[in-house]
Design brief:
By secondary structure, the protein is mainly alpha-helical. It contains two helices and two strands, in the order H-E-E-H.
Length: 148
C-alpha cells in the first residue's frame, strides 16, 4: 500500500493568510465604495461655497448631479480614506498599548514582587522552624533493605 503523507508548510500557510487578509481588505473597500455610491445618489445639494483668494471656485455642490465616473472616483477615495483612518487608528492603539503595558506592569507587578520577596525573607525563620518541627514529628521511614 502506498501511504500518503500530508505536510504543512508554515511559509505556505502564512502566504495563504496574507492573501485571505488582502481579499477581505479588497471586499471591505468594495463595500465602502458601494455604500458611498448609494449615499451620493440620495444626497441633497449642499450649500457649500469654496472661495480661494476671493475667487469663487464652487458655488453649489451637488454630489447627486456628478457624472458617474466622478462618483466612482469619489466613492473609491472615500473608501481609501476610511481604510487609512482604520489603519492609523489600529497603529495608534498598538503604540499606546506598547507604551502603557510596561508602565502598568512596572507600577503594579514590581511592588508586588518586592513585597513578596520581603515577606519570604522575613518569614524564612518561621518556614525553617516549621520544617524542623515536621521532621521531628513525622515517623522515621522504614528501611526497605532486608537483614541477611
Amino acid at each position: 500500500m502506498n501511504a500518503t503523507t500530508i505536510t504543512l508548510d508554515s511559509a505556505r500557510l502564512q502566504g495563504w493568510a496574507w492573501r485571505a487578509a488582502l481579499w477581505l481588505l479588497l471586499a471591505l473597500v468594495a463595500l465602502i465604495a458601494l455604500g458611498a455610491w448609494q449615499a451620493f445618489e440620495h444626497l441633497e445639494p449642499a450649500l457649500v461655497q469654496v472661495h480661494v483668494d476671493g475667487a469663487s471656485l464652487v458655488a453649489d455642490l451637488n454630489l447627486a448631479a456628478l457624472p458617474p465616473a466622478h462618483k466612482v472616483m469619489l466613492a473609491l477615495g472615500l473608501a481609501l480614506a476610511v481604510l487609512v483612518v482604520l489603519f492609523v487608528a489600529m497603529g495608534s492603539i498598538a503604540v499606546a498599548l506598547v507604551a502603557v503595558v510596561p508602565i502598568v506592569l512596572l507600577s503594579v507587578l514590581l511592588p508586588l514582587v518586592l513585597v513578596t520577596a520581603l515577606l519570604l525573607v522575613l518569614l524564612s525563620p518561621l518556614w525553617l522552624l516549621a520544617w524542623l518541627l515536621w521532621r521531628a514529628v513525622r515517623p522515621a521511614p522504614r528501611s526497605t533493605t532486608m537483614a541477611a
